[in-house]
Amino acid sequence: MRAKFAAGLTLAIALGAGTLTPALAVPHPSAARALIVVKAIDRDGHRQALTTPAVAMTISRFRHGAEYFADASGVIRAAPGRYLVGAEVVTPARAGRKESTTLIARVVRVASKKIVTLDARTGRRVSVSLLVPGSTFGGVGATLCGRGADERHPLASAVAQAGRIYVAASKSKDLWFSYASLWIGSDGTVYSLGGGRTGVPRVPRYAFRPADLSRLTLVAKAGAMEGTSGIWSMAALDDRHCGVELGDQLPATIPGKVSQFVSAGTWASGITVNGIDDDLVSITTRVTARRHYSAVIGKAVRGPGPTMLPRYLVNLPVTVSMLGLLSDPAGNANECSAHGSLTLRKHGRLVRSARFRRCNGAYVRLRLHRGWYDMSIQARRVAPSSSAPVAPLSRRVHLAWHFRVTDRDLQSVFGVPVSITRFVPSGLDMYNDARPGAVTPVRLTIFRGRPYPAYKIRSVTLQISFNDGRSWHMLHITGHRSRWLARVRNPDRGFVSLRSTVIDINGNSSVETINRAYGIASTVPGT
User: CA 378 to CA 396: how far, in whole Å?
Assistant: First the structure.
């Protein structure tokens, strides 16, 4: 669970980045003129092999933030210069003493070869306490990150439920230190505490008073999200997204709410549904002291997210990802519980077709040429497992893109001139049902592959259906550019399906259809 939450959190932070850039790759020996050899000494003074690769980040005015990993021998190959070198040094358990981890980051200058020794004996214990009598310690974590890192990969990170974490002091202004801790009150109340700062203090000791905390209510809605129960997890972030994962914390019912108290800062909340292995959703909440916040996951309407918008890459095929077809509007979801297909036509002639089942075949690479294309992507939700039936909402999704490709496009890194529409209905209950006969406001947010004046939107229209798409009715909408608003008069029962059409001034068009976008409440909630 924790590894999966970390993966989902990394996805939210990287805004959908799915490829490893050269900054994270180990450069070819012929391209590197300097070696950084990393060695480690534990808190007992013994030599230790690093359990995870050391990381080096460049720190300079002209070339800052590139990160490099050590190889299996602990050697980092990079160009000469100044670096922040960091790693976790593990001290094994001894008689009467548990295993501990020390986080260390040092600033070094490398000309040709440099041996860097990370000595855990310089570390001081990270202490995060709660000033509530009778509360129980549930775990502590800490992370060291380079400020301005290209990939935001931590230099060192550790979490311990029972053991201790130490960190070495540093005055570097290029280093960010994050810490977090979990506490349980005598009445079962959960407290998540955390913070961060530039550099590492000589004594990393922190205490929190209940009066300075805020209440964070975690809400899981049903209907658009599968399952009936799950587990909430939390991760503490600072403004630079240097995260400390606290792991599994609170049981979740779907639908349902749970509350906890958190310190001021940025928190990532994630839910994993029991019986489903491919569907983690996370949402980030910025918190100030002494207030009440809500983080809602599972809202309607699930549908295509902006990560689906394809881009040109100079002389390379265009890659279309199906993983964002059924993403959560509030957070993000790597949704694989769907079967679907893609067809591509040029001037009406079929040039490519593909099918995908769950995550298999979810990436399609297309070699495009000059001309007009029509791309159709459709998906049908399926049960994610035998213990979790298919969700009643967003049962089918269809995208139809009509766009022109020019020779200049093929030599660029522009986005393909198509659009994604996000539908957000207001006033729905915990089952994502609206009141029968009432008026439901629906906000439309349009994400464009090429949001430039030369591709300005010419028209936006919205159609609704109350019979699963057998007939459609035009609806009046107001707004401009990428934000629009419609008011839907709900039927007495059933579901509401939505279809948007976006056309730009060059004739590129996008039609998006969500079958059963939201439901109409009956006398029995959730039916």
Answer: 7
Tell me the backbone φ, ψ of residue 11, rounded to 5 degrees: -65, -45
DSSP track, 185-253:
-TTS-EEEEEEEEESB-SS-EEEE-GGG-EEEEEEE-SSSS--SEEEEEEEEE-TT---EEEEEEEEEE
Q: What letter does residue 62 receive in the DSSP assignment?
A: S
Q: Which whole-number Å values give the CA distances from 247 to 89, 140, 403, in the listed order?
A: 21, 10, 44
Kindly report the CA angle at 315 between 310 and 321, in degrees rounded to 5? 25
What gap in Å lies between CA 459 and CA 472, rounded to an integer?
A: 18
- pLDDT digits over 343-365, tens only? 999 999 999 999 998 877 788 99
- Residue pair 104/200 in contact by the 8 Å Cβ criterion: no
Q: How many CB atoms lie within 10 A of CB 414?
A: 17
CB 502 within 8 A of CB 477: no
Which residue has better confidence, 6 or 73?
73
| CA 504/CA 456 separation, integer angstroms | 6
Query: Dihedral, CA atoms, 475, 480, 485, 487, nearest 10 degrees?
Result: -30
Residue ranges of domains in the chain, CATH in brackets: 2-297 (no CATH), 306-520 (2.60.40.10)
DSSP reduced 3-state for 31 = helix
Q: How confident is the model at residue 277 (pLDDT cuts 50, 70, 90)?
A: low
For residue 314, the one-letter residue type is V
Q: What angle do CA 515, 520, 522 make, to 5 degrees?
A: 140
DSSP3 helix / strand / coil % (the chain, rounded to 5): 5, 55, 40
DSSP code string of 114-173 = EEEEEEGGGEEE-EEEE--TT-EEEEEEEEEEETT-SS---SEEEEESSSEEEEE-B--T
Strand partners, 496: 518
